[in-house]
Amino acid sequence: MSHVNTVAFTILVVSFLAVTLIGFAAARWRPAEDPMQLNEWGLGGRGFGTFVSWFLLGGDLYTAYTFIAVPALVYAVGAAGFYALSYTIVVWPIVFVFAPRLWSAARAHGYVTLAEFARGRHGSQGLGLAVALTGILATMPYIALQLVGIESVLTVMGIGARTGSAFVKDLPLIIAFIILAAYTYLAGLRAPALIAFVKDTLIYVTVIVAIIYIPPRLGGWGHIFGAASAHLKTVNPTTGKPSGSLIVTPSGEWAYATLALGSALALFMYPHAATGVFAARRRDVIRRNAALMPAYSLVLGLIALFGYMARATPAVNAGVKAGGGNSQLSVPLLFEHMFPSWFAGIGYSAIVIGALVPAAIMSIAAANLFTRSIYTEFFNPTATPAQETRVARLASLIMKVGALGFALELNKTFSINLQLLGGIWILQTFPAIVISLYKSWFHRFALITGWASGMVYGTIQAYRTPGGGQAHFGASTAPVFGHVTYIAITALVVNLVVAVVLTLIFRAIRLPNGYDVTRPAHYSADPVEGPAARAGTPGA
Amino acid sequence: MAQSAPPGRSPVTRVSVTVLLVVAIGGTLWVPIYARSMPKLGDFPFFYWYQLIWLPVVAILCWLCYILLRAPRHGRGVRK
């Protein structure tokens, strides 16, 4: 870490430049008749078939969290970190069930975001606003987490390590982000969709090479699991317990399952995931991709195993210790010590570009939310498509600056805490979206109150959970009636109970409900032609 | 979950799709069935290879459901 590795650095810079060119060129990919439509900038013209969608969804959903945070967790605690694999297995059959209905409803009404659906289905501006704010709030730290991922690569490469100036140290990150913001502004979703091809190729190449090349050099899988197991058994002096286990313990099973289920249910409530769904050309594209995306989850599973490989590499353990015990460095360090420097450069590029693609899509998705559910809904109901597109472009810039501020100004622990909270918060929109795809039974005010209860309960519970040397926000799980459970799931139960009870009460006292603009046929609609012309403001 | 199939499908199709998807979802959510180290596959404890094998299984199950739901293709125009 003492000197910058020139070869690896050159390869990273060249890949970044190549991706930048692609990003700008994307503005001319599948050109739109009228680019000043939010459908065009924000959803790439809703024209992506199975092939492009596969790359786009893979590039969108498997983020720096996959490449850095999951193996870091496995490195630190072992089997418990593998819930991420179970989560990315379970998510696809769940998506198979509800996402086609969501796609059809969005296509039938020209919705660009989930918030518009919640608003249209329940005839409630408040509910639309709640869903939009939750989405923006949860996305901001998620973008910041992508930056933290890029930072860990730069740290291991030794960039900015020897300068005392914080500004010079952060400069590469700032430059990278400005360039990303520029081509996202210009090309919208087309940019990350096209770059996703590069990202996914780099990731697959890196992972396949690593899984073939590294284990024999570490004495085989037997030795890797052995070394990991030996470490996990050592007792942590501060807690007096082993740091983890190679197999989930009986007491950890419930936490493992609820984390997997909660994360899977939450994933497609995130704005960037919904954007990936809405950008599909046909209803069938979603179902086909539910069957094809597990290939990417396999990559996640193999990357999770990098955590054990890192544990079996003494130089990585020394590097993590030197980095203040920051296990986020374990994968970049593994590449540094195991690969020749040119291939380490490829691996670093995979992580950096792998973080840029989701960061771009997240900022676009949050910008769409702001535009449709806040700007058009509350400030300019007669906004023209061109006005909307301009607002969305600006909002995507603001979103990125905000995330950069998050990552640079606030400390890292804080942004990771917020990311943890984001997962809890975003799941609270589940009843207003997924359940509402099937039944409009819930009363709009009951849904809002349920949402608020889940948000408040989840935030307080997360705040009160100590762990990892912190007094607050120490873990995403907390005991409920003796079972350690993912807080998001407990909060969702609170949310649902409140929503059901209040719906019964509100119906009994005949409190007026909102007007549902959707019709049963909209949920299985599969128009072959292009998107329905935008039918005025959502819900109009 | 039972509503995954659009209305108008035969009950057999709807039940099979539901069963396939429940199996796909339950396979890794039911942790006690695989939270063990034996039997090993090569050097891999059961916990790891079981989950990795579920990936192609889930992919196949989802593809089967897709085929089942797509079957009456010529009926698309009527279905709307």
For the biggest β-sheet of chain A, the strand order reads 1-2
Average pLDDT confidence of chain A is: 85
| Rg of chain A, Å, rounded | 23 Å
Shape of chain B: elongated
Separation, N- and C-terminal Cα atoms of chain B: 22 Å
Overall 3D shape of chain A: globular
Strand content of chain A: under 5%
Question: Could you give a short account of the major beta sheet of chain B?
Answer: none
Helix content of chain A: over 70%
Name the CATH superfamily classification of chain A.
Sodium/glucose cotransporter
Could you describe the 3D structure shown?
The complex is a heterodimer of chains A (540) and B (80). Chain A is an all-alpha fold and 540 residues long. Chain A has helices spanning 6-25, 38-43, 50-61, 64-77, 83-109, 114-122, 125-157, 166-187, 190-217, 220-233, 253-267, 271-278, 283-292, 294-311, 314-322, 330-338, 341-379, 385-409, 412-427, 430-438, 444-463, 487-508; strands at 477-480, 483-486. Chain A has one domain (6-25, 37-415): Sodium/glucose cotransporter, CATH 1.20.1730. The longest helix of chain A is centred in the middle third of the chain and has 39 residues, at 341-379. Chain A starts with 5 loop residues before the first helix and ends in a 32-residue tail after the last helix. Chain B has one domain (2-6, 18-72).
